[in-house]
Amino acid sequence: MSEPIFELKDVVVTVNQGTPEEINIMDHVNLKIYAGDFITVLGSNGAGKSTLFNIIGGDLKVTSGEILLHGKDITNMSVEHRTRFLSRVFQDPKMGTAPRMTVAENLLLSKKRGQVRGLGARRLKQNMAEFEEITKTMPNGLDQRLNTPTGDLSGGQRQALSFLMATIKRPEILLLDEHTAALDPQTSAELMHATNMRINKDQLTCLMITHHLEDALSYGNRLIVLDHGKISYDVKDGDKDTLTKEKLLTFFNDIDG
Ligand SMILES: Nc1ncnc2c1ncn2[C@@H]1O[C@H](COP(=O)(O)OP(=O)(O)OP(=O)(O)O)[C@@H](O)[C@H]1O
User: Fold this and answer.
1) Which of ligand 1's atoms lies nearest the C-alpha of 60?
2) What is the ipTM of this complex?
3) Which of 11, 25, 52 to mutate to test the pocket of ligand 1 (most atoms within 8 A of CB)?
4) What whole-number distance in Å separates Cα of residue 39 and Cα of residue 234?
5) Cα–Cα distance for residue pair 107/14, rounded to 1 Å
6) In terms of Cα–Cα distance, which of 222, 209, 188, 232 is closest to 88?
7) CA–CA gap between residue 105 and residue 110 (Å, rounded)
8) Pocket of ligand 1 (CB under 6 A)
9) Strand order in the sheet with 173-177
10) Which of 59, 71, 213, 256 is deepest in the core (most CB within 10 A)?
11) What is the pLDDT of residues 198-250, one digit of tens each?
12) Residues 6+ apart with CB under 8 A from 94
């Protein structure tokens, strides 16, 4: 079997150390992520889903254990350095975009991330055809809003833009943190469909937190369930294909169906 591109090795995060409230909010977690994995992440409120993403993204320091990228220890790598290989889309439509800049300018900023030069009008024009093409793959008429400041977009358009910004430079790992949860059911379903198309087409490696059992079952090749800071289930490929909602519900008790 090929080597994982990213790995958590016996990772522990302890909070309130030395007090009666001391607890491991990540409790000896081992996780190997392989290129092309699309992992849906389920768990009750407080199970540790955001904690897992904060550890992968570097926002949360681990108390013990190791984090490896292509076998190399990156446990102490900063958030900023991790953005070179990792992108994250949040639930809140206000996060991640610069509100006074237009859709096209935000896309250019993401495309040129890390470069100081080349954000002028000429560069914008040069990239417009690509931006038209990729926004057409998104729902909610985002392709009609390329010159609109992002502060004037609907929540659905803004989430679609955040998704494009996160994927325009093809991250090695994409973290989707309930990115459709704040949207109405139809808009959410449309963005989820577009998300899946893009992940499959570009063969992205992705982890997606969701509270929707149907989405967790329909999308991806792998499903993990978190419980009290541990991975309680890790179901892959053929086993995931045959997993039913009824069976999944037996994995935990208090999640919304
Ligand atoms: N910095 C922190 N200090 C203390 N406790 C924390 C900290 N961060 C998270 N926790 C606790 O760790 C547990 C896991 O929280 P986390 O946010 O990862 O859960 P979650 O699965 O994302 O939940 P939700 O579905 O509600 O978003 C919770 O009990 C939370 O209160």
Assistant:
1) 1
2) 0.96
3) 25
4) 9
5) 38
6) 209
7) 9
8) 15, 25, 43, 45-51
9) 86-89, 173-177, 206-209, 38-43, 222-227, 230-236
10) 213
11) 999 999 999 999 999 999 999 999 999 999 999 999 999 989 999 999 998 88
12) 158
